[in-house]
Amino acid sequence: MTTKPAFLSALGLVSALGTGIAQSAETLFGDRPADMCAHDDYLVDQSTILGTVTAPLDPLPDHLGHYDTRNNRLLWTAANQISDEISDVIATFGKDRVAVILGTSTSGIEEGTSGYQDKLTNGAWPDTFRYADQEIGSPAEFLRDALDLQNQAYVISTACSSSAKAFAAARRLMQLGLCDAVLVGGVDSLCRLTVRGFHSLSSVATGICNPLSINRDGINIGEAAALFVMRPDHGEISLMGVGETSDAHHPNAPHPDGIGAVAAMRSALEQSGLPSDAIAYVNLHGTATPLNDSMEARAVDTVFNHPVAVSSTKPMTGHTLGAAGAIEAAILWLSLQDIGNGAPLPRHIWDRVIDPAVPDINLVTETGHRLAPTDQAAMMSNSFAFGGSNVSVILGRGFKTKDAAS
């Protein structure tokens, strides 16, 4: 197996933070309000707040109209933001050497739901119904065809860890020599099936989610797409480590002591070659559900022997499910852009009512908080999914290039 660095040289991003990296950074680190919008058409006789992409989405190429779902339009909007970098990586390595690996959990399920409703109401499928829209692999297949790529293209779907696992898979493909570069990320769109499913589990917040508070009562679902170019030859931000574990504790509840979460964070640190005190910031999974937040706080308290800065950004994005790992890696990527002036950190939005049963961790609570200026920094994001699938991702800037672990 060859060993190569894995640089993340470009990022396309669309979410409740906004469209593009500039608007997203303004929301994360400044005072632009996130698009956390009340909707009354997802739950029966009840309004719910969802992380919503409110800007128009780019239409798909005319010859690919059979892929037309909101999920794929989100992905295409993100891809178009980095079209020059995508063109460059294709020109550098060739269409047969660029892979596509994404995470999702919804794909085109909302379009399928609408089709089923029409069938029940009118007795016939609508002309626009295409069963393949609902297939989990549709986003990767669409992006491959849109760019005329000829390497592997597939989707990982492990609930909330999906697109975090995509980073590990992408780097493995590069290390194995199966490709030279990867378009890697995640995409998920709002759909009634998902929102109602979480509501049936009593996991949906009554307002804006309130991570780590004693008053936390659940999540806000969100939609988003984040797409990176991963390549071995250049880039300011590198993928330094990915830790993957599975504790299989329960179908939809984490292990209360965070055993799998601790192991994932330690595995990512080992892969990166960094000690825990080299991590300057952790983006928490931070769903604002009672069990996740208490578990994760314990795990962070166990792994880090210094008061590492932490926050949950889900009150600004919603929980984007299959896209969450990529969105939160994107937040690290944005923060790492300006380490020379002191990396900006996203604030932790909550009611500040402490839960005495949760360990006291170092929450970033003020807008405009920055780390001390430095020439190198590493940050971690956590993703913990149903079934005990745990992933921690470490991105860094300024470190001497190190061959990735096999």
UniProtKB/TrEMBL annotation:
The keyword Transmembrane helix does not apply. Keywords: Signal, Transferase. It comes from the Bacteria. The keyword Plastid does not apply. It holds the Pfam family ketoacyl-synt. One of its GO terms (molecular function) is 3-oxoacyl-[acyl-carrier-protein] synthase activity. Residues 1-24 form the signal peptide. One of its GO terms (cellular component) is cytosol. Coiled coil: none annotated. Residues 1-397 form the Ketosynthase family 3 (KS3) domain. GO terms for biological process: fatty acid biosynthetic process. SMART domains: PKS_KS (SM00825). PANTHER family: BETA-KETOACYL SYNTHASE, POLYKETIDE SYNTHASE-RELATED. Belongs to the thiolase-like superfamily. Beta-ketoacyl-ACP synthases family. This is Ketosynthase family 3 (KS3) domain-containing protein. The lineage of its organism: Bacteria, Pseudomonadati, Pseudomonadota, Alphaproteobacteria, Rhodospirillales.
